[in-house]
Amino acid sequence: MVRTRFAPSPTGFLHIGGARTALFAWAYARHHGGTFVLRIEDTDVERSTPEATQAILDGMRWLGLDPDEGPFYQMRRMDRYREVIAKMLVEGTAYHCWCTKEELEAMRAEQEALGMKPRYDGRWRPEPGKTLPAPPEGVKPVVRFRNPLDGGTAWNDLVKGPIAFDNAELDDLIIARSDGTPTYNFCVVVDDWDMRITHVIRGDDHVNNTPRQINILRALGAPVPEYGHLPMIHGPDGQKLSKRHGAVSVMQYDEDGYLPDAVVNYLARLGWSHGDDEIFSREQFVRWFDGQHVSRSPSRFDFDKLRWLNNHYLKQADDADLAKRVAARLERAGVAVPADGPDLGVVCGLLKERAQTLNELADLAHMFYGEHDPNAIAQADRDKHLGGAAREAVAGFAARLAALEQGDWTAAGIAAALKETLAAQGLKMPQLAIPVRLLVFGVTQTPSVDAMLAAMPRAWVLARLARWPG
Ligand code: GLU
């Protein structure tokens, strides 16, 4: 039974890299019909905040990555960590170390002077036949893990393939500080064990922690999970992802008008592939994501592609659902959507093709709901489109619209009125359609003008057509 986890530290928002890690761990569990666990690693009390925890939970919910178990909080598991440390001390897989800060600094200086890599020299490490010094007065000891001295620690990484470390390279890690609080690597190990995690999928900034964690698991007699380390996400320029590149909270993507499905599709393709498939649903991704075909090299963030995908998801979104998301944005912009005005769902349906984000869609919707003062029409547009026969053509068109039966207030009915007007006045479509667009929508280009007008109450259209600049 596959069990994966996402284990963020709540020291900041859920950013795009964390979101991808969460997505892959989630999808791997779903693919295998397993369990996805959410664990909040909040033991760094100075840097962890409830706001960050909330931001992570919000981001996960927005992306639709619901955990099957959790969130579990490490700070609520302190007794369990202490219990395991006590057991290790009894079993001899961990030991007290009374080195003071000064001693450690001296040790380090000495090793550096000799050109050696600084490391703990094992002076408090118990060995058969070794006599340990007497514990000094007034010093509170830390607890260190008794790491194997020889041999190696290796695993076959799900992403990176075989990885091996010499145990001699690994220090006797501090697993509890002198105040008794457990350290990061240790909590991860106990949690992965207790939560029966079978596959640890995380960022490759943790590769160096893995041999230490494996050794502690072995010392505990715990099963060792599989590990898969995901390469970083870089900016489009190949540099470390920064704020400027989009290393912002996933909720910022919501704010900026991206749909969660588009972001999930985008993140899924960021460092993973399934042939040439670019657009796929969450369900397809889950069906395909078996841990294979994850890229071994860093991926590059590509905003244009995200925007392209978002446009795709906007186009196929349900118009009523879009209306809800766009309404909130119009409200924020102070644009009223009156109940007797154009239906926002219909408006979204007409305009979504032209928008890459919900914010752009909301901006476009202004053309239906905004006040368009004809005097605000640019002089160049007036000269080009509102001279000559335009005024008479618009008046003739308005008269025909006013005379339509109520049941003919449809795109087809309006198209017929347009054609009649053109025929009667010997004009071509743009000579009427552009002036109408300018007066009703304030712009020269829109989707098909008959469908646009049909989406608006007749009284609104006639009122707008009755105005003229000057
Ligand atoms: N809490 C760690 C982090 O946010 C992740 C630990 C892990 O996945 O093992 O980087």
Question: Which short descriptors sum up this protein?
Answer:
Arc Repressor Mutant, subunit A, Helicase, Ruva Protein, domain 3, 470 residues, elongated, mainly alpha, three-stranded parallel sheet, binds glutamic acid
Description:
The chain is built from 19 helices and twelve strands. By secondary structure, it is mainly alpha-helical. Among the domains are: about 55 residues, Helicase, Ruva Protein, domain 3 (Orthogonal Bundle), CATH 1.10.8; about 90 residues, Arc Repressor Mutant, subunit A, CATH 1.10.10. Helix 6 links the parallel strand 9 and strand 10. Helix 11 packs across helix 12. The protein is elongated. The model has no long low-confidence stretch (mean pLDDT about 95).
Determine the mean pLDDT. 96
Query: What is the overall number of helices?
Result: 19
Task: Tell me, briefly, the overall form.
Answer: elongated
Radius of gyration (Å): 32 Å
Give unreliable regions as ranges. none
* Portion of residues within helices: 40-55%
The CATH topology of the domain at 374-465 turns out to be: Arc Repressor Mutant, subunit A
What structural class results from the helix and strand content?
mainly alpha
Architecture per CATH nomenclature, i.e. the level-2 architecture of the domain at 374-465: Orthogonal Bundle
In angstroms, what separates the terminal alpha carbons?
75 Å
Give the total of beta strands: 12
Query: Order of strands in the sheet with the most strands?
Result: 1-2-3
Largest sheet: 3 strands, parallel
Strand content: 5-15%
Bound molecules: glutamic acid
